[in-house]
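Sequence in, structure out. First:
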Amino acid sequence: MFYQIRRTLAHHHPSAFLLSAQLLFLMLYALFDEFHNQQALLSAFNILVLVLVVWVVNRSSKIQWIGWVIATPAFIFSLLSALTINSHLLLWTSLFNVVLYFYATGALIVYMMGDYRVTTDELFAAAATFTLLAWGFAYAYLTCQTWIPGSFISSINPEPSLTFLELLSLSFTNLTATGLSDILPVTDPARIIVMIEQFVGIGYVAMVVSRLIGMTIAQRERKRG
């Protein structure tokens, strides 16, 4: 069964599948923004989709093994978070999600940089990797906020703890260098995470995206020649 799933996804652009799933989950998060249990369940299912795609695109059995080891506790903690609201449980859930999303980001970057030929799926992978970075830093913000309450303040929401969707919005605006300034980090750990994300966002565009664009142009010129 797993072999059939792998063949099906590999044939139908797994990175496009991941990108579509991430955008779908983004809309579902917006619908269930005020319901902690539903968000935790969405997070658990998102983990399954994420690991499935990384399993398909990765050809290294060692990397796949590491991915499943990280994903298993992340999935379990997400399910437990859907059953009960506990700050310690939320902290561990967020931590495992941070590790898992950054691992998946690294795995997809290795996949894109593995050769000198740009496929359609690798172009989808570039966009999907960007969403993984945004999700990973959003969970890093959630970890920081759970560990140090009041790490972020919002000009719109007076509550001391921001929702995951608000932190995800902060992550996207920070990663794209948009900077809407409606949410601000107010503690040193929060500011450090924000600065790291800004550095990573610029580095990703400069190193990965520019490389893919350059190789795509080179491929087209070779075909014309």
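Second:
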Amino acid sequence: MSPVSENPLPAFEPDWLALREEADADARATAPLDPLRVHLAGRGAGPGARPVRVADLGCGTGSQGRWLAPKLSGAQKWLLYDVDPGLLSLAGAHMPLTSADGSPVGARMCLRDLGSITGEDLAGVDLVTGSALLDLLTPDELTAVARAAAGAGCAALFTLSVVGRVEFFPSDPDDPALTEAFNRHQRRGGRLGPDAVGAAGAVFGELGYRVLTFESPWRLCPERVPLTLAWLRGWVGAALEQDPEAAAGGYLERRLGECERGELGVVVHHTDLLVLPEGGADHP
């Protein structure tokens, strides 16, 4: 297969990824970490054993590694996959150097698109991970990633997948129509959008995985005004691009003003997905 697929992931600006990193870190569920640690120990990886081998798919600037590596003990070896060389360089430069117990963390950068990754690439990997990734995939891409992970016998942890639900405080009559329009925008190009978690659970379940889901809501305004302002512009813009009639005039300006005055609360719901292969410890 070629190193770049015909349907690469959308590109994201480093400034946007930096702006959302703190909210991402606060939102990611920590409950998956205990069963993940048990699984890794069963594979002979972690403290007092060989290094944990992790493949971060669509790593962007590396926020998933910066969040996860310090939460796992033992030496770690990360493979960072992204199709954007600029983002990949940032990810490699800012990976943590040590794990939770002070063991070394190393990283190797791989300039690749997900459409070209196979089970052979993941041979020997203990964990496939990705953040804000699943909703960007098409069903075929999801199936390819799941089969590659299953072929390697590794676990997978996918964080911060959108589920199509946003809560505003106070609410506005145009909120439901905009949410529906945004969700349809997320499905453009055949991408899974808010259906991603359910689709991933079904695909991994068919491959013999145990599927666990955990809520991971973004909590935005009033605590995170700059991020909320940027998110509002993008969310409303995408919704109106999909359906220009989804909201009456002035909606965005109204919401931006409420945010700047500290009068708006926003919760953007996400789900984290941990999938564990039955008998995974048989794949050292």
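Remark: The domain at 14-163+190-219+268-282 is CATH 3.40.50.150 (Rossmann fold).
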